[in-house]
């Protein structure tokens, strides 16, 4: 029990610190920027979970939007069946929706992964790409979830009171998103540093050797894929309830590509890299918006693409490669310590 | 009882019989050499034994159990391991992680244990780390434990592959040309290493090698392959003087007269 508390210390403290920052953001920042912030958190989960498959396990999935859509629509549909209670209890219902959305996405991941993970490289990319499109087309033609018109009025976080305090819609949504970002981060971070994680890495490095050294490579790949899908589904659920509106076009091929870009840009096999890249990819197009007003033409995508090209030329292995921010801090510490200097 | 009993296995790739009706036995604790000219089918035999290829015909019994239909990771779990002709390390992982991947069968903690860092996770992970470091130190690689495996010099990479194979707790280790590309000194050290692991780990060894000095020096019995068939089997002295073996390696007088 003591060990368990010990292991939960860092995640808990991080959660509380980020929650504190959230309270400031709640007062100091307008709703537009708050929305961008939630999107950043959602993209972080997408990027980190995709990194597990594309970065750590060395497979190439192009269907992340499909799993996100599965989670989003499952969660949204569920919220029409189970009404969201008012007050603080709403947090639990959103947690429940997220778990259900994630589980549904994980099941989809299992169904897609079992047959297709025997394929390698480009073939897997095409299968997952196809899956993403199938999901989108199915949603487009399912009237129960709004079809092409989209799904309106999905219940989302609302303001509620805690004694004399008013907890705003943003803080509720933000804390929910932060919670899942941290669950995703610490799950993957610790998994990678365990025997299960080493199995992922060995599959990326050399499948034949991994198999000969006792690693069940098919099972390992399916596990990575299912876990990755789960978190994509969770990200979809958070998206559905914060935006209150879903449309199949939100889950087009481009969203899968965005997720891949974040992984590649941050570094294949760097979780902190994915986090930084998710911020960058979400913020840059928005930050360039004022430029459009000044110039009168929309050159956002030109600058955005150009900056991506430049980054890939300057840092071909992504911002962080396979290292983490913590590695860099440790390296700096060693450099700065007086004993090391010559 | 024999540890490994290969019963007339055949491997057919389309119209080509890479290995044809090969049979041989390895007893507990033996050191057997498998030799033959280039393209004789030696590595194909290894791939069939370790489950990379499924033999088209025949049966392989390991410790009394048939290996037909088993996947490489299942065969590894039974206690047969291998190294590769072209080094196949996990190049971007640390030397220690390379060994720890192979020790995954010592681990019984589950997914949630590793995420929650339970006592079981901490204990098993510590034990595996100590065992792996211990293996590395036996072969003098412990100072390089945190280095990237791909950054090691060639000879050490070869040695790391053997260490990694040992971490799977094998009964039989198959070494595929461990001396390839090594100079005289390195080969000599390798011979010592092989003798050492055999003794310390009570291992049975099956060795493919081109370096005749190495093979003749340490093997107790040698199986000679040519064009997928066994042409000779026996102790080194017998192999050295066998007309069939000399013919397979050097050709016959007729070849010489017929050639240009």
- Termini separation of chain B: 51 Å
The percentage helix of chain A is over 70%
CATH domain topology of the largest domain in chain B: Rossmann fold
Query: How much strand content do the residues of chain A show?
Result: under 5%
Mean pLDDT of chain B: 90
CATH class of chain A: Mainly Alpha
What is the rounded Rg of chain B? 20 Å
Tally the structural domains of chain B: 2
Shape of chain B: globular
Largest sheet of chain A: 2 strands, antiparallel
Instruction: State the end-to-end distance of chain A.
Output: 46 Å
- What oligomeric assembly is this protein in? heterodimer
Any key phrases for this structure?
heterodimer, A: 342 residues, mainly alpha, ABC transporter involved in vitamin B12 uptake, BtuC, two-stranded antiparallel sheet, 14 helices, B: 260 residues, alpha/beta, Rossmann fold, 2 domains, 6-stranded mixed β-sheet, 4-stranded antiparallel β-sheet, 11 helices, 10 strands, 24% strand, globular
Describe the structure.
The complex is a heterodimer of chains A (342) and B (260). Chain A starts with a helix and ends in a 6-residue tail after the last helix. With 342 residues, chain A is mainly alpha-helical. A two-stranded antiparallel sheet of chain A has the order 1-2. Chain A has helices spanning 2-28, 31-56, 64-81, 90-116, 122-140, 169-192, 195-205, 207-212, 217-243, 253-266, 271-287, 289-295, 300-314, 325-336; strands at 160-162, 165-167. Chain A has a single domain, classed as ABC transporter involved in vitamin B12 uptake, BtuC. The mean pLDDT of chain A is 90. Chain A is built from 14 helices and two strands. Chain B is α/β, with parallel strands linked by helices. Chain B folds into two domains: 1-79 and 171-260, P-loop containing nucleotide triphosphate hydrolases (Rossmann fold), CATH 3.40.50; 90-169, no CATH class. Chain B has eleven helices and ten strands. Chain B has helices at 42-49, 72-78, 95-102, 111-116, 119-138, 154-166, 184-200, 212-218, 236-240, 243-250, 253-258, and strands spanning 2-13, 16-27, 31-35, 57-62, 65-66, 80-82, 172-176, 204-208, 221-226, 229-234. In chain B, helix 3 (95-102) runs parallel beside helix 6. Chain B is globular. The model of chain B has no long low-confidence stretch (mean pLDDT 90). Chains A and B meet through helix 1, helix 6, helix 7 and helix 8 of A and helix 2, helix 3, helix 4 and helix 5 of B.
């Amino acid at each position: 029990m003591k060990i368990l508390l010990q292991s939960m210390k860092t995640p808990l403290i991080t959660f509380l610190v980020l929650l504190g920052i959230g309270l400031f953001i709640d007062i100091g920042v307008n709703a537009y920027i708050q929305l961008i912030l939630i999107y950043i958190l959602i993209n972080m989960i997408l990027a980190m979970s995709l990194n597990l498959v594309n970065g750590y396990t060395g497979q190439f999935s192009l269907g992340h939007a499909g799993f996100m859509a599965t989670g989003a629509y499952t969660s949204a549909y569920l919220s029409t069946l189970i009404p969201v209670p008012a007050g603080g209890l709403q947090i639990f219902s959103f947690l429940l929706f997220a778990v259900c959305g994630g589980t549904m996405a994980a099941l989809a991941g299992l169904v897609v992964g079992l047959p297709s993970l025997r394929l390698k490289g480009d073939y897997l990319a095409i299968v997952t790409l196809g899956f993403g499109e199938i999901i989108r087309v199915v949603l487009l033609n399912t009237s129960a979830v709004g079809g092409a018109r989209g799904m309106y009025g999905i219940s989302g976080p609302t303001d509620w009171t805690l004694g004399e305090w008013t907890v705003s819609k943003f803080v509720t949504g933000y804390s929910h998103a932060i919670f899942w970002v941290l669950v995703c981060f610490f799950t993957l971070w610790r998994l990678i540093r365990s025997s299960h994680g080493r199995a992922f890495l060995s599959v990326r490095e050399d499948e034949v050797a991994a198999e000969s050294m006792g690693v069940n490579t098919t099972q390992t790949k399916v596990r990575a894929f299912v876990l990755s899908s789960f978190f994509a589904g969770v990200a979809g659920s958070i998206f559905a309830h914060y935006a209150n509106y879903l449309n199949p076009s939100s889950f087009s091929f481009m969203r899968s590509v965005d997720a891949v870009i974040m992984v590649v840009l941050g570094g294949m096999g760097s979780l902190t890299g994915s986090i930084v890249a998710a911020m960058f990819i979400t913020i840059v197009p928005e930050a360039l918006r004022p430029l459009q007003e000044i110039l009168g033409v929309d050159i956002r995508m030109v600058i955005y693409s150009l900056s991506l090209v430049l980054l890939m030329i300057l840092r071909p292995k992504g911002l962080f490669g396979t290292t983490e921010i913590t590695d860099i801090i440790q390296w700096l510490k060693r450099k700065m310590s007086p004993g090391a200097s010559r | 009882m024999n540890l490994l009993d290969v019963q007339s296995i055949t491997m057919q790739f389309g119209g080509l019989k890479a290995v044809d009706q090969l049979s041989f036995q390895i007893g507990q604790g033996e050191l057997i050499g498998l030799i033959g000219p280039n393209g004789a089918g030696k590595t194909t035999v290894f791939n069939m034994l370790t489950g990379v290829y499924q033999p088209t015909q025949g049966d392989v019994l390991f410790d009394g159990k048939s290996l037909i239909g088993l996947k490489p990771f299942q065969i590894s779990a039974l206690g047969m391991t291998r190294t590769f002709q072209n080094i196949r390390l996990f190049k971007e992982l640390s030397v220690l992680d390379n060994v720890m991947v192979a020790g995954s069968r010592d681990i019984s903690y589950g997914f949630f244990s590793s995420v929650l860092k339970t006592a079981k996770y901490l204990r098993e992970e510590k034990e595996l780390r100590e065992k792996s470091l211990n293996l590395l130190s036996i072969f003098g690689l412990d100072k390089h434990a945190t280095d990237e495996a791909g950054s090691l010099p060639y000879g050490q990479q070869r040695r790391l592959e053997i260490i990694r194979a040992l971490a799977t707790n094998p009964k039989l280790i198959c070494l595929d040309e461990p001396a390839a590309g090594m100079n005289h000194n390195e080969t000599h050290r390798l011979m010592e290493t092989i003798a050492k692991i055999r003794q310390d780990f009570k291992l049975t060894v099956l060795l493919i090698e081109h370096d005749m000095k190495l093979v003749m020096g340490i093997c107790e019995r040698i199986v000679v392959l040519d064009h997928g068939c066994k042409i000779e089997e026996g102790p080194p002295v017998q192999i050295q003087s066998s007309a069939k073996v000399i013919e397979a390696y050097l050709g016959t007088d007729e070849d010489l007269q017929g050639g240009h």
